[in-house]
Specification:
mainly beta; Lipocalin; ten-stranded antiparallel β-barrel; 15 strands; 14% helix
Length: 347
């Protein structure tokens, strides 16, 4: 009997310990969730001057959007005063966006219009992600494009054959990381014109400090300079491949004009110094010596931001230069244009 009693006591004690452990884990989970919520509230509402910024992070914002991403590269010959610009086929994306508290994302799909226009054989992967907080902007880009079109040529009037204008053999890979910091985040909202879980109530601006890192790789089966205009470009620009690694520091300004409380225009210029090096192949493999050149970032928006309804247009661009040799440069750029309309659900 005593042995049976001891067994029962042991089983009951074990059950109590298990329940206590579950309770402790539940309390720990609740405590962690509370800390996460407190952190979210701190990041959403900290130090805002409410006469300048209204926060709607507790409401779910849903938007419909149309998106066009673009990228290009250009070579410039200042000796012969000529240049060529290439761009890939452009796609139109449609989709939906959602934001709540700290989280925001866009889900888009390709409309397939490109396949009916510029090229017969083309491939692409284009990821552009970004994160906005009260004073930070962080973005990451990974792009792969096969098939480019000659978009512009200057310095010569020689006609180009249609077969030379479309280059399905040109392939590029782009990787980029970008960071920006807004100093006047108490009165100026980075999120209001781009995420729409905040509203800029009065006109305000901020000095912007930024940094970025980029890798660009281009290769082709033959020179990217069409044979018809080859004499107008320096031999070192008859590129079959180009590899550039760069890092930059940017400093500029962003300002949001507010008209009649809800209409807004956001403009920015954030220039910087870009440090580059790499190599290229134009008959022979050559190094690109360490050099400093110009870089320009810009985040812009226009639209209407009401208490519930919002709509407008965003335009974001990033371009930089790299010297190949004296008076010979490459320009690399990318960006996107977004048209949207949305509504906030909640209080």
């Amino acid at each position: 009997m005593k042995q049976y009693f001891k067994t029962v006591i042991i089983i009951i004690s074990f059950i109590i310990l298990c329940l206590a452990g579950i309770g402790a884990k539940a309390q720990l989970a609740d405590s962690l969730m509370k800390k996460v919520e407190d952190l979210g509230d701190y990041l959403l509402y900290r130090n805002h001057d409410t006469t300048y910024i209204s926060n709607y992070g507790d409401e779910v914002a849903v938007k419909l959007l149309a998106l066009n991403k673009y990228n290009y590269f250009r070579i410039r010959d200042r000796i012969n005063k000529s240049r060529i610009r290439y761009r890939p086929a452009r796609d139109l994306y449609m989709g939906i966006g959602l934001s709540y508290k700290l989280f925001a994302f866009n889900l888009t799909f390709n409309t397939g219009l490109r396949n009916k226009s510029d090229f017969e054989d083309t491939k692409s992967l284009d990821f552009q992600g970004s994160m906005f907080t009260s004073k930070h902007f962080i973005s990451a880009t990974l792009q792969y494009y096969q098939a480019y079109k000659l978009a512009n040529i200057s310095g010569t009037d020689v006609p180009i054959n249609p077969g030379s204008e479309r280059r399905e053999d040109i392939r590029t890979i782009t990787f980029g990381l970008q960071y920006m910091y807004a100093f006047n985040y108490t009165k100026f909202s980075l999120k209001a014109p781009f995420v729409f879980n905040e509203m800029q109530r009065k006109s305000a601006g901020s000095t912007i400090l930024g940094a970025s890192f980029n890798i660009f790789i281009m290769n082709a089966d033959s020179s990217i300079v069409p044979p018809e205009v080859a004499p107008f470009f320096h031999p070192d620009l008859h590129l079959r491949d180009l590899n550039v690694l760069s890092a930059a520091v940017n400093f500029g300004y962003m300002y949001t004009f507010v008209y009649k409380k809800h209409f807004f225009l956001t403009l920015s210029l954030v220039p910087g110094i870009n440090i580059n090096f790499g190599d290229y192949f134009a008959g022979l493999r050559n190094e690109i010596n360490l050099n400093a050149h110009f870089r320009l970032n810009s985040l812009n928006a226009i639209g209407y931001n009401g208490r519930k309804f919002f709509a407008g247009l965003n335009f974001l661009s990033d371009s930089y230069f790299s010297r190949i040799k004296k008076k010979l440069t490459a320009e690399i750029g990318r960006g996107k244009i977004i048209i949207f309309a949305g509504y906030r659900f909640g209080k």
